[in-house]
Design a protein that fits this description.
By secondary structure, this protein is mainly α. It folds into two domains: about 110 residues, no CATH class; about 50 residues, no CATH class. About 45% of the residues lie in helices and about 5% in strands. It has a three-stranded mixed beta sheet, with no helix packed on it. α3 runs antiparallel to α4. The longest helix has 20 residues. The radius of gyration is 16 Å and the shape is globular. It starts with 12 loop residues before the first helix and ends in a 14-residue tail after the last helix. Bound molecules: zinc ion.
Length: about 180
Amino acid sequence: MQKEDLVPADTPPVLRRFAEWFCDTFEIRGICDLGYIVNITAMNLNIGDGQGRFGSGMGQDHEDPPLAARDHLVASYGTTIADNAPEVDELLDRVAQAKSTILSVLRALWTPPSRLTCCCCGASTTGRQWYNRDNGFGICRDCIDCIDMTRHTVTECVSLYGVRGITYDLPSDQP
Ligand SMILES: [Zn+2]
């Protein structure tokens, strides 16, 4: 069976991207994991019932939905995260860094897209604010494609710009 078959058909693209990023980053490869991550994330963010249906107000009403989603994911995948978390700064604890990055990505996902100014070329682009960028600034698709290949590792790129399909290069950002 294809991995894709187990992701609910109506999964919002940004949630799917989050689950793919999570699996890629922490080397999670079970055939059920992508769908499971989509569902528990949606349920905690109050945008899904945890059983493949999506819409606002369908999940659990938490005080801090991204934090609840992060904690649920860490409870489920803590050992895998500890084994596979990429090192961002050798002086910092890898698990703590991973937990902090997951929460930042979930907080970005939780905010609606907006018009941002590309920090590199100054163009207007659609994205979600990333905590490590000045307010109102993001990165456009053309610029990230140059930066990816030449100046930074994938891990550094996440730290600087967030995640493709969540904070930049959104499907709705047509040229
Ligand atoms: Zn640009």
